[in-house]
Every structure is written in structure tokens, then in C-alpha cells.
Amino acid sequence: MKNYKIAILAGDGIGPEIMSEAVKVLKVIEERNDLSFELNEAAFGGCAYYESGHPFPEETKTICDNSEAILKGPIGMNHEDSERIPVDLRPERGALLPLRKRLNTYANFRPVSLPSGLAHFSPLKPEVIGDGIDMVMIRELVGGLYFGEKEVGVNSDGLRYVKENLEYDESQIARIVHVGFQQAMRRKKILHNIHKSNVLKSSVLWNEVLGEVSVEYPEVEVRHMLVDAAATALCLNPAQFDVMVMENMFGDILSDQGGGILGSLGLMPSACIGDSSAYYEPSHGSAPDIAGQNIANPYSMIGSVAMMLELSFDMLEESKNVWAAMQSVFADGFSTPDLSKPGAGVKMIKTNEFGDRVVAVLSK
Ligand code: NAD
After folding, report:
1. DSSP run (H or E) holding 279
2. Of all helices (H) and strands (E), which one includes residue 52?
3. How do residues 200-223 score in pLDDT, each as one tens digit?
4. Active site residue 228
5. pLDDT digit string (tens) for 46-58?
6. 259 part of a folded domain
7. Active-site residue 356, yes or no?
8. Which residue, among 268, 242, 266, 243, has the nearest Cα to 255 in the 3D structure?
């Protein structure tokens, strides 16, 4: 029997609540397939800092290194708790970015998807949303402004200053645009290249490299769009997008907007893929405003399990089953509180009830 080791990093805020639901789903998949999942829990993020003094402890690194895949909940604290941690040990800087760098997970897949039956969750008008939303944003995850050299100091005028570098070399750009083209080949053969070449030299190089790589994919139509225009287009005509590729910060921001047009960040899972490692996490943060209330939407975390089943364990059918089960719960008239206002004619359910219903559908 095949045994897969999975590191479970539940994280902060709503992380443990939504991770419990994801684990329920993994148990169902394990029970009905000829395999076992060895789930190894490890501390990561703000909770790890408060427990052990470091947000990414050595023990967690070892567990991650010895796993076939990593399932990670969101990390991060509210503003006040964050301020109490030294700047370089705060969850994102001290744990999340080092995890990405360590695994070299340069390709972040963020599906922005709302089948037509669930279109009522979107804040967009029915005539805008049409048959639903179905696109994938591909975000470069280990380069750019978030990883460039930083300098803080006081200048010769006595003023505090900061410098942050946006760095990419052509190989970093080429490997992520290849991912974009390959994804486009599997879908509609349209690739939106999101950039800011009217202002940023980094985008000029990005576009040059993309042009060079494009000759290997003659069937793919490339459509160039400035990132600011793309932000508007996502609201006004999301149906034009199928696969979008972009650098790290653009992808961070635009994918949150993706959550906005779906109706909630709680509908945004993601996969972070490198040449030899992968981890899976919701696109959103730890939602401290709703933590501990059993009202978070676990779709993003369970969807990350679905992506892990497909991309790390080659279990495409089970992955599809998980997506279908989650969507059927909503299609049956249930909603988590992030997606509907009270009185909207839906049956409101809690975090754990959503997980239980997904498990019930899967177990039928
Ligand atoms: P957030 O994504 O945590 O929350 C934004 C809004 O979306 C909140 O109103 C929240 O309640 C809601 N939301 C998010 N996920 C939800 C879910 N599953 N169900 C229902 N509602 C949900 O963003 P924030 O408040 O700006 O950040 C909180 C913390 O998370 C910060 O410390 C931030 O740095 C961190 N963060 C971490 C990650 C990560 O771990 N990859 C990503 C983004 C932000």
C-alpha cells in the first residue's frame, strides 16, 4: 500500500478550524483508496513564534523536508499581535517567504472559479457574470519585490528611507511563463500576460522573455494587458480571462481581487509548485476578525486538498470528486456566512457543518 507523508501546518487565526475540515476529507479519500496518508502536524507562523520563539522552527523544516506534500493553513496575526513580534520574525517574513524560498515553489496556481449554479455568490451583476467565472491566475512566487534586497537607514539629510529591489533574471521569468503557456495549452490556448511595462523595466524584460518563450507555443494567443487595466477588466468582463500569468506582487493583489469577484476569499485555494516540491494553501490570510467562531469558509482549504490530490498524488478523479462535493453543498442551498447575508434565502451553515456535508456527499 502506498504511503504518502503530508506535513500539516495548520497556522494561525482560522487556520486550525479550516484545516480540521480538510483533514476530514483526507480521511475519506484514504479510507476508500489503496493508500495511507501519514499526517504530521507541525507549528508554523505566529503560533510557532509564540510557542518556540521562531515562526519556522527547525523541527517544522525537517517535517516539511521529509514529506511528499505540505498542506498549509493561513498564517499571520492581527495588527497588534504582529507588532509585538520582531519585524524579521513576523509570520510572513520569518516563515512564509522562507518556506517558498526553501522549496523553490516558483509557480503559484490560483483558480478563480465559480460555476454558473453558484453565480449568485458573486457581487457582479448576472449580465456581467454570465455563465460563471473560470480562470486560473499563475503568480510567480519566489522572486520580485518580495525577495529583492532591502535597505533601511537614514540618509544624508537625516531622513529615514527604505529601498526595496524588484529583481528577476531571465531564467526566473522564462520558467514561470513556460508554466503559463503550458496551462494555456491545456485550456483555451489564450494567455493573458499581465505587466506594467509602461513604467517598470522589470516588465520590459518580462515581456521580452515571454516573447522569446512564446515561439515554442505557436498555438497560444498572447494578450498583453497592463495590471491596472486588468484590475478593472476583472470586474467588468471577467469572462475574457482564462489563464493569466504575472509577477509576484501583481499576482498577490489581483488574486485577492479574484476572491472579491467570486464573493469571498474563502473560495480561493491554491497550489505552490516547484520542480521537486509542492505545498498547498488557501490564497487568503488568517482572517483574525472571524477566528475562533466556527464561521470561516473551509472551501479554500478543502480545495487546496483537491489540488494536492491532483498535482502531488496524481488522483485526478478523487480531486474532481472533492470539487463536486463542495459545490453540491452550495448548490443544495447552503451557504457559509462570508457568502450570503442573513435573509438571503439560504441555509446558513458553520465551518464544521460544511466539512461534514462534504464528507457525507463524498461518502455516498
Ligand atoms: P485575510 O485574507 O486574512 O482576510 C481578509 C477578509 O477576508 C477578512 O474579512 C476575512 O474575514 C475574510 N476571509 C478570509 N478568508 C476567509 C474564509 N476562509 N472564510 C471567510 N472569510 C474569510 O487578510 P488580512 O485580514 O489582511 O490578513 C490577516 C493576516 O493574514 C495578516 O497577518 C496577513 O499578513 C496574513 N496573510 C497570510 C497569508 C498566507 O498565509 N498565505 C496570505 C495573506 C495574508
Report:
1. strand 278-280
2. helix 46-52
3. 999 999 999 999 999 999 999 999
4. yes
5. 999 999 999 999 9
6. yes
7. no
8. 268
Is residue 149 domain-shared with residue 16, that is, in the same domain?
A: no
Instruction: Report whether residue 255 contacts ligand 1, using a CB cutoff of 6 Å.
Output: no
Q: What's the full length of the chain, in residues? A: 364
Q: Per residue in 191-226, is it b (16+ CB within 10 Å) or e — as a string? A: bbbbbbbeeeebbeebbebbeebbeebeebebeebb
Q: Separation of 301 CA from ligand 1 center, angstroms?
A: 13
Q: How far apart are CA 297 and CA 132, in angstroms?
A: 20
Model confidence over 127-178: pLDDT tens digits? 999 999 999 999 999 999 999 999 999 999 999 999 999 999 999 999 999 9
Quote the number of domains for the chain.
2
Q: How far apart are CA 114 and CA 55, in angstroms?
A: 34
Q: Does 96 contact ligand 1 (Cβ within 6 A)? A: yes
Q: How confident is the model at residue 342 (pLDDT cuts 50, 70, 90)?
A: confident
Task: Say yes or no: CB of residue 92 within 6 Å of ligand 1.
Answer: yes
Specify whether 224 is located in the same domain as 348.
Answer: no
- Residue whose Cα lies nearest atom 7 of ligand 1: it is 265
**Digit-coded pLDDT (tens) for 62-72:** 999 999 999 99
Residue 196 a catalytic site member: yes
Would the pLDDT of 9 be above 90?
yes
Could you say which of 263, 283, 299 is where a domain stops?
263
Range of the domain at 20: 1-105+274-364
Residue 284 CA to ligand 1 center (angstroms) comes to 5
Q: How far is the CA of 75 from the centre of ligand 1 (A)?
A: 8
- Active site includes 101? no
Q: Is the CB of 73 under 6 A from ligand 1?
A: no
0.85 surpassed by pTM: yes
pLDDT for the residue 143? 98
266 lines ligand 1 (CB under 6 A): yes
Pair 255, 295 in one domain: no
- Asked whether residue 259 falls in the same domain as residue 129, the answer is yes
Nearest CA to ligand 1 atom 36: 285
